[in-house]
Design a protein that fits this description.
Structural class: alpha/beta
CATH topology of the largest domain: Rossmann fold
Shape: globular
CATH superfamily of the largest domain: Response regulator
Helix content: 25-40%
Number of domains: 2
Distance between the termini: 45 Å
CATH architecture of the largest domain: 3-Layer(aba) Sandwich
Length: about 450
C-alpha cells in the first residue's frame, strides 16, 4: 500500500479480515541476520529525492508488514490507522512550539521483506522527507528500517522486536549495551522477559526439565539460540536444540525424533507461523506431545489458531497487550478493552495483540513532537524520543529509565497466556494464566498442560 493521506482525510481504508551476564555467546552478527549490508546500502541514495518540506505539516512514515509471511503482525494496522486518524489529536494536528501543525501519515508495506523495508525507508526519508519513521513487527522489518534511519539521521521508533535483535541489528553489542544510537529508539521486551514469562509456567507443570528448542536459522532464531538457551540453562533446565533449520522447512522428522529420544517435556520456539503449523501437525502425528508448549513469535494472533484447530488448545505464549490489560489511551482515554471491542466490531474478526503496540507508536510520536520547539529539527525530535516517559495503551513506557537494558529501549512486561477452548463467539481465546512479570493484570484461567 503506497499512499499518502493527511490527518483530516478520514476515508476508511479497506479493513482486512536476564540477565545480560548470562547471555554468553550472543553476537551482533547472529542477531543482525536480515539487516546485513543495509548500512552500506543506505548510503547510495535515491535519485530525484527532494528536501522540500511544507513547514506547517509533520510527516510521519509508518512501515509494517501488510503482506507476506509476517502479514498476521500487520493485520490490525489499517484499523489502528483509522482509529488514530480519527482522534482529535491527529485530526486537528499537533501544537509544537506554540504553532499548530497538520499531521500526515505515509504508510508503506514492507511485504515481510528486509530488502523491501530498506527500500521504502529510504523512499520515506529521501523522497517524502519524513520527520519520523515508526515501524513494527519482527527484525525482518524493524532492523533494516532502523539502520536506514540511523544512517540518514531520521528519528525512528520501533516495536514488536526483541530489544537484543534490534540493538545488534544497529551494530550494538547486547552483552555491553552502552552505545546510544542517536536517532533510534524502541519499546518491547527481550530474552530476559521471555524467560520471566515462560519459566514460571514451566515450574508449575511437573516435568523432567528437558526443553525442546525449535529455533530457525534467522534473526530471531539465532538470537534465541545464542541468548535464550544460556538463560534456560541458568535456571536449571536442560536444552535440547533441534538444529538451525532454514525458514520454509517442510519436514521436521529429524527434529521431532531428537526431541522424542531426549524425552523433552517442555517445548520452546520462535519460528515463522507457517513453519510452526507444519511442525506441530507433524509432531502430533509422530507422537511428540510435550507437557507444556511455550511459543514465541507464533500463535500471537487468532489467524494462527485457525490453521491448527483443536491442536492449539493450551499452547502458551507471551502477551504484551490485550483487553485484559488495565491501560488506556493517552490520546482519548479509551480503554484497552474498549479498543479491542471496537476492532472486532469494525472488522468482524477477533482482536489481536498488535493493536496495542501499533497504537502506542503514534502515542509516543505525539509525546516526542510535543516536547520540541521545531518538529523538523530531526536531532531535537530524536532527543525527545529518548526522553519520552508516559503511560498509554501499552502501559508505562520510559525510554530513559535507569533500569532500561540499553539506551533508547523502553520495556513493556509480558504476561503468560494460553489459548483456551470457549463456548463464545470464537472457538479459542487467549486467557491470562500467569502474571509473574506484571501483577497489575488479573489471572483469567488456570494454567493447564498442553498435553496431559
Amino acid at each position: 500500500m503506497d499512499r499518502q493521506e493527511t490527518a483530516h482525510d478520514l476515508t476508511p481504508l479497506n479493513l482486512p479480515i536476564a540477565r545480560r551476564s548470562v547471555l554468553k555467546g550472543i553476537g551482533a552478527g547472529a542477531l543482525a541476520a536480515g539487516a546485513g549490508g543495509m548500512l552500506a546500502a543506505c548510503g547510495s541514495g535515491i535519485k530525484g529525492a527532494s528536501s522540500v518540506t511544507k513547514k506547517d505539516i509533520i510527516n510521519i512514515g509508518f512501515i509494517t508488514p501488510l503482506t507476506g509471511d509476517l502479514a498476521d503482525f500487520g493485520a490490525s494496522d489499517k484499523f489502528v490507522l483509522n482509529t488514530i486518524r480519527a482522534t482529535a489529536t491527529y485530526r486537528k494536528g499537533f501544537t509544537v512550539g506554540g504553532k499548530k501543525y497538520k499531521v500526515n501519515i505515509i504508510v508503506e508495506d514492507s511485504q515481510s521483506s528486509a530488502t523491501r523495508a530498506t527500500q521504502v525507508a529510504q523512499q520515506l526519508i529521501q523522497s517524502n522527507n519524513v520527520d519520523m519513521i515508526v515501524t513494527t513487527s519482527t527484525p525482518e522489518t524493524t532492523n533494516p528500517v532502523a539502520v536506514a534511519a540511523e544512517s540518514h539521521g531520521t528519528p525512528c521508533l520501533s516495536t514488536v522486536v526483541p530489544w537484543e535483535s534490534w540493538y545488534a541489528g544497529l551494530g550494538g553489542d547486547p552483552l555491553k549495551p552502552t552505545k546510544k544510537f542517536e536517532f533510534c529508539t524502541m519499546f518491547f521486551f527481550g530474552l530476559e522477559q521471555f524467560l520471566g514469562c515462560f519459566e514460571p509456567m514451566w515450574n508449575r507443570i511437573p516435568n523432567n526439565r528437558e526443553v525442546a528448542c525449535m529455533y530457525p536459522n534467522d534473526s530471531d532464531g539465532n538470537a534465541f539460540r545464542d541468548g535464550f538457551e544460556p538463560l534456560i540453562k541458568s535456571v536449571g533446565y536442560k536444552v535440547v536444540d533441534g538444529g538451525a533449520y532454514p525458514d520454509g522447512t517442510t519436514d521436521f522428522t529429524s527434529m521431532i525424533t531428537k526431541f522424542k529420544s531426549n524425552h523433552c517435556e517442555i517445548y520452546s520456539n520462535c519460528p515463522l507461523p507457517p513453519d510452526f503449523v507444519t511442525f506441530w501437525h507433524q509432531a502430533n502425528q509422530q507422537g511428540f506431545k510435550p507437557k507444556l508448549a511455550t511459543v514465541a513469535k507464533v500463535l500471537l494472533f487468532p489467524s494462527d489458531v485457525t490453521a491448527l484447530g483443536s491442536l492449539v488448545n493450551n499452547i502458551a505464549t507471551d502477551s504484551w497487550w490485550g483487553p485484559y490489560m488495565p491501560y488506556s489511551s493517552s490520546l482519548t482515554g479509551q480503554t484497552a478493552a474498549s479498543l479491542a471491542t471496537a476492532f472486532e466490531t469494525a472488522t468482524s474478526t477477533q482482536w489481536t495483540q498488535s493493536i496495542g503496540s501499533s497504537y502506542a507508536l503514534f502515542e509516543i510520536a505525539k509525546e516526542a513532537f510535543s516536547a520540541v520547539s521545531d518538529p523538523h529539527d530531526k536531532s531535537e525530535v530524536a532527543n525527545a524520543l529518548h526522553t519520552v516517559n508516559y503511560t498509554g495503551m501499552c502501559g508505562p513506557i520510559n525510554f530513559g529509565a535507569s533500569t532500561a537494558p540499553a539506551p533508547g529501549v523502553g520495556v513493556i512486561p509480558p504476561v503468560g497466556v494460553q489459548w483456551k477452548k470457549t463456548t463464545g463467539k470464537y472457538p479459542f481465546e487467549m486467557k491470562v494464566v500467569d502474571n509473574s512479570l506484571n501483577k497489575s493484570v488479573k489471572i483469567e484461567a488456570p494454567l493447564e498442560p498442553t498435553n496431559a
